[in-house]
Amino acid sequence: MSSLLIANGFIVTLNEENEFIEKGHVYIEDDRIAKVGDFPLDSVTPDRTIDARGRLVMPGLINAHHHLYSTFARGFTPPGPPAANFREILERLWWKLDLALDAEDVYYSALIALMNAARAGCTTIVDHHASPSCSDGSLDLIERAFREVGLSGCLCYEVSDRNREGEGIEENVRFLRKCRERDDDQIVGLFGMHALLTLGTRTLERCAEEAHALDAGFHIHVAESEDDVQVTFEKYQRRVMDRLLDFGIPGSRTIVAHGIHFEAREMDLLKSTDSILVNQPESNMNNGLSVTPILECLARKVLVGIGTDGMSSHMISQARALYLLQRAYRRDPRVMFGEACDILLKNNRAICGRLFRQPRGALTPGHLADVIVAEYVPFTPLDASTFYGHLLFGLSFAPIDVTVARGRVVVENGTVTGVDEEAVRARCLERARSLWSRIH
Ligand SMILES: [Zn+2]
After folding, report:
1. What is the CATH architecture of 61-355?
2. Distance in Å, CA 382 to ligand 1 centroid
3. Engineered SS bond to 65: which of 20, 132, 178, 278, CB 3.0-4.6 Å?
4. What is the predicted pLDDT for the residue at 440?
5. Is 48 exposed, middle or buried (0-12, 13-18, 19+ CB in 10 A)?
6. The domain over range 3-59+367-416 is classified in CATH as 1.10.3720.10
7. What is the Å distance from ligand 1's center to 402 Cα?
């Protein structure tokens, strides 16, 4: 058994009592938190001690919707005139980029993004992957990157008819079978689908049949653009949630990403089916889309989480974007302060509770040892009543000095351990250049 002590830090437990310990310690055995508090240091015998004096210690963060494959788009401008709407963004950028990815691109785009996530204190990521030219085995490549960096992941492959009918079904089935056959909670799976606007009836039937046989939840974009709603209504005379219900897709382990254009009744259906809604505010703004009715969903007690949709791997800044966007959109400075922080810290934790066996997201004995140490010295009072202000206005800019994931120190002094960062960056640059040259 290995053990690690994080000593003398300002401990933000996010436990049930919401305890704040000004000078406290976190003791880790293997991949679990064993002890938290201001216990005498000589009561434990760690293999290793990290002194967190003058720094803030809190649970690792969770990203509930990411696209690691999008990493190499940074700085890339697709050929032709600028996309004028969401459909054109998909057609001119994402569907060309994902089609051009080869196996090495898939691996390196995941690896560098996961390194950045670890450096931003994110220790669990729910990913949604597409690489139609090399779909077979692509989730194994992403899994390899997760294991090398040391983070936890929930993976899926996005099925779509846009290139070939039912493309990606086999990869989901293969990967979910693999996950089911082994006793491992670091990497788990969902059945991924793109969005109703690129999925025909036959494909939806096949996805539903395969996923239900494997007892898997789904991960799908829904009502992200008006297009998704219109196409579904024109072709099938159904609202999007009704169409998903027709195939038994909603449920407690199903992630519905975006949900911007939901009617009140569809929000009721989210709740009555206990489905998970995950919002990506930066991505929605970037695509010139509208705003998810978060408060209306929260009022119905829908489990609402937050992801980055490939925009970054920085979760606190994403929660800050959610808070700012909703305030501006609603022209109401009273809303979304507590809600944005709860969504990041409590709801994403609850989502993981549905996808993984091991609890995480609080510094409490028995939880997965995902712990971060931020270079953050508060100069105003910090306690349970003020923490969210520190989170959105201070910690959002604080460097993460140490990230411990599953009991392993994966970032130290801001550097990813166990990976040759310089070599990975150099290889990514080569891969990105080559990828860009293949997109026309
Ligand atoms: Zn997405």
Report:
1. Alpha-Beta Barrel (3.20)
2. 35
3. 278
4. 86
5. exposed
6. no
7. 28
**Which residue in this structure is represented by tokens 């930066």?**
282
Compute the distance from residue 221 Cα to the ligand 1 centre, in Å: 6
Distance of CA 232 to the CA centre of its chain: 27
73: helix, strand or coil = helix
Q: 238 alpha carbon to ligand 1 midpoint, in Å?
A: 22
Please tell me the distance between residue 129's alpha carbon and the centre of ligand 1 in angstroms: 9
Q: Give the number of other Cβ atoms within 10 Å of residue 393's Cβ.
A: 11
**Amino acid (1-letter code) at residue 400:** I
Separation of CA 411 and ligand 1 centre (Å): 27
309 C-alpha to ligand 1 centroid (Å): 5
How many angstroms is it from 440 CA to the middle of ligand 1? 23
CA of 256 to the centre of ligand 1 (A): 10
pTM: 0.98
Any bridge partners for residue 221, and if so which? Answer: 195, 257
Q: Measure the CA–CA gap between 26 and 375, rounded to whole angstroms.
A: 17
Q: Which segments of the chain have a pLDDT < 70?
A: none
Structure tokens at 10: 């300002």
375: its two tokens: 């270079």
What is the 87 CA–ligand 1 centroid distance (Å)?
14
Q: Tokens 């493309």 correspond to what residue?
A: 167
Q: Is there a shared CATH topology between the 3-59+367-416 domain and the 61-355 domain?
A: no
Question: Would you kindly state where each structural domain of the chain is located, as residue ranges?
Answer: 3-59+367-416, 61-355
Strand partners, 329: none
- Could you tell me if 86 and 41 are in contact, meaning their C-beta atoms sit under 8 angstroms apart? no
Both structure tokens of 123: 């220790």
Question: Are 110 and 118 within 8 A, CB to CB?
Answer: no
